[in-house]
Amino acid sequence: ITDAKRARLEKLEKQREQIARCEEKFVHAASTVRNINKNIFSRPQETIAEASKLIDVMSEVFLNENDTIMHLIQKNFSDEDMYFHSLNVSVLAMMLAHEQKCTQDQIKAVGMAAIFHDLGKVNVPDTVLLKTDPLTRAEEGLMQLHTQYGVDIGRKAGMSELVLEVITNHHEYMDGTGYPNGLK
After folding, report:
1. Cα dist. 100→51, 69, 103, 106 in Å?
2. How large is the average pLDDT for residues 141-159?
């Protein structure tokens, strides 16, 4: 084995180990997101504190592992799609805020808002959430209500106005075709 080949093999082994460690943390983070969604009604303040701790960990661990985390975001963890979706959105939003030179507090606020962006889906029936065929008009209307449901839950839980604003507007589009208010 040449020195160059040995060096490549050692580098690949380090990358595999790094991915395995990061994947373990990522799966644990998704489990925490599941607990957050489950406990938001019964223990709102504790749940928000738990989410804040998760965001702290994510900002320390995942933002410094861009290549590794992008590998994990692309991986299919289908058994927990909703929780991985919230986690993925949060990590990507925090990475974007980091690249935009936001402060640490701003990055964490973005992460917190992204973790809770789909909170209102807990009030949408699984028959609508999991439907693979196109939604009927009534089902579409029900799905669109998840933003308001999320704001109602978040307000009762004592979430910040920034988080509530993101929950409200995360389906708005630049051209005004989004919902709930068709903002441009």
Report:
1. 23, 18, 9, 11
2. 94
Confidence of residue 74 (pLDDT cuts 50, 70, 90): low
**In this structure, what token pair is assigned to residue 71?**
């590998």
Closest residue by Cα to residue 111 from 120, 102, 121: 102
Length of the chain measured in residues: 184
Whole-structure pTM value: 0.79
**Amino acid symbol at 11:** K
pLDDT for 72 equals 63
Q: How far is 145 from 104, CA to CA, in rounded Å?
A: 32
Q: ω into residue 125 within 30 of 0, thus cis? A: no
- The token duo for 179 is 């919902």
Residue 144 · residue 170 · CB < 8 Å: no
Number of other residues whose CB lies within 10 A of the CB of residue 50: 17
Between residues 86 and 179, which one has the greater pLDDT?
Answer: 179
Other beta carbons within 10 Å of 21: 13
- Up-side HSE of residue 63: CA atoms within 13 Å toward CB? 22
